[in-house]
Amino acid sequence: MAKRIPLEKKVLSENDRLASELAERFAAARVLAVNLLSSPGAGKTSLLEETARRLGTELRLAAVEGDLATDRDARRLRAAGLPTRQINTGRGCHLSARQVADALSDFDGDGRPLDLEALDILFIENVGNLVCPAQFHLGERQRVVVSSTPEGDDKPLKYPVAFESADCVVLNKVDLLEATLFSCEAFRRYVRGLAPRAPILELSCRTGAGLDAWLNWLREERQAARKGRGLADSI
Amino acid sequence: MAKRIPLEKKVLSENDRLASELAERFAAARVLAVNLLSSPGAGKTSLLEETARRLGTELRLAAVEGDLATDRDARRLRAAGLPTRQINTGRGCHLSARQVADALSDFDGDGRPLDLEALDILFIENVGNLVCPAQFHLGERQRVVVSSTPEGDDKPLKYPVAFESADCVVLNKVDLLEATLFSCEAFRRYVRGLAPRAPILELSCRTGAGLDAWLNWLREERQAARKGRGLADSI
Q1: CB half-sphere exposure, A98, CA atoms < 13 A
Q2: Which terminal Cβ of chain B has fewer Cβ within 10 Å, N or C?
Q3: Binary contact (B130, A128; C-beta < 8 A)
Q4: How far apart are CA A51 and CA A215, in angstroms?
């Protein structure tokens, strides 16, 4: 095991180098890249479906979708009108910057790259895992951690690495609040201790409650990306 | 990256060696070791709380509890009467056989080992992660994958590595079935495709529904472990 840490560092730094290249490409194209992290089943795909349905005529959107297996989520997103490239990781527990770069270079599976210049927002839906993806930057300008009420309000405390890296925290499935033992006040307090500046957006993809605040956050971040504001912070 | 696969194999085989040692120790003590895997918030700790409350006077139980951070779950289990050793993994995405062996050697934090001979069942609650823990054997005789209805019925398809390694699948939070879009029939079909022989136990830790079948499964597996039945399969 003694050799493991240096190699892990090497893998991480190689990923960081590629992530920086991606960040530069996104900045040059003035596209907002959003990396979404969550537990399995917290609702990342549902959030992107609703986003595509509500924002798809106003902004030019695309997605890269990471899963161990199947193209179910990519098919869901395409059905919602979102051009999507599926990445299957097999046993891989996170997306890497290399995988994202390769997906952008061959976005349609026929060798055609995604035209970043023709895009407003690129969503990168990571593998459902609240641990490993937090340690791999993908060149994103904004990192969104999606949590959901049935998971319990203590998830920030138990998975601090993900939450402390969040630029925005989405709390999904608030329609199940009454059916669960979830304290929004406790959840907000725990998130505040790890990511003091991240907005916390409570919503339900199922009922649509709270989605407007999420769409407005995307619009504002899209504007900031277009103007190149705060870029130094994000790379 | 070319060096990564051999090293990963080396780490895995070192873990396998230690896991085999643990399996031999568990078999010699005729203790049933159960490794619980799930997404964050699926209900592993709640399941062990209810198990301790209902089975704690009948069988001698103990637990090893894996989390990135905090000892919240260990305190919950101790409050339910279950002697528990917390392991904090930091950024670690799974428990290793080494961590379990160390926890057993120093079970109370004062250097006293757990007496396996005086035990009927040892629960090992893994880090909440449906990807990485599946690849690290911990010497367990039975591996239980806990899923929950709000996560969606397609989790077996999207996380096949965990489900295909399951000896038993628990579907928790069936009290939320009506509030979610979850098909028990689809879930069962997907699990069957990956783990044809694993029982699928639908239950709710909150209402207590279905817990009897889980307790009976534990009793039967405890009996089998005591008699040493099927041991060759489990190592």
Answers
A1: 9
A2: N
A3: yes
A4: 7
